Amino acid sequence: MTIQAYIAHLRSKPEPVRRRIAFWSSFGVTAIIFAFWLASFTPSLISPQNTTSVAQISTPGQSLIAGVGGLFGDIKDMIFGPKKVIYTEVEISPR
Questions:
Q1: Which of 73, 68, 78 is nearest to 50 (CA)?
Q2: Does residue 62 lie within any of the structural domains?
Q3: In the chain, how many domains are there?
Q4: Helix pair angle (60-80, 15-39), 10° resolution
Q5: How far apart are CA 53 and CA 34, in angstroms?
Q6: Could you tell me the residue range of the domain that residue 28 belongs to?
Q7: Which one of 1, 57, 81, 87 is separated from 40 by 20 to 30 angstroms, measured CA to CA?
Q8: Looking at the predicted structure, is the pLDDT value of residue 56 above 70?
Q9: In a domain, 36, yes or no
Q10: pLDDT tens, 62-83?
């Protein structure tokens, strides 16, 4: 279905349905723009070992993907806390 056909189909819907579709569509686009805007701040929040050097990013698409990936990593760290230390050796001593 083309966009023109879909818009023509939406025009036949009742007014409340059209308003609901318009609201959620605009909300989705705004959320995507907000996510990319928030991702633009992540290089200042990432620790130096996690940053990607400019020489490794050659296209704007790669830069965008690196920023979004950093955003999701930062959100995960904010929700679940900092990186956890995993001990590989367990020592059991008698009391």
A1: 73
A2: yes
A3: 1
A4: 90
A5: 25
A6: 3-80
A7: 81
A8: no
A9: yes
A10: 777 777 777 777 777 777 776 6
Report the greatest alpha carbon distance in the chain: 79
Asked whether the beta carbons of 83 and 77 are under 8 A apart, the reply is yes
What is the DSSP secondary-structure string of 29-88? Answer: HHHHHHHHHHHTTGGGTS-GGGPPPGGG--SHHHHHHHHHHHHHHHHHHHHH-SPPP---
- Per-residue pLDDT of 27-46, as tens digits, reads 999 999 988 887 776 555 55
At residue 77, what is the residue type? D
Q: Evaluate whether residue 89 is within a structural domain.
A: no
Determine, yes or no, domain membership for 85: no
User: Quick count: other Cβ atoms within 10 Å of Cβ 8?
Assistant: 11
In the predicted model, is pLDDT for residue 16 greater than 80?
yes
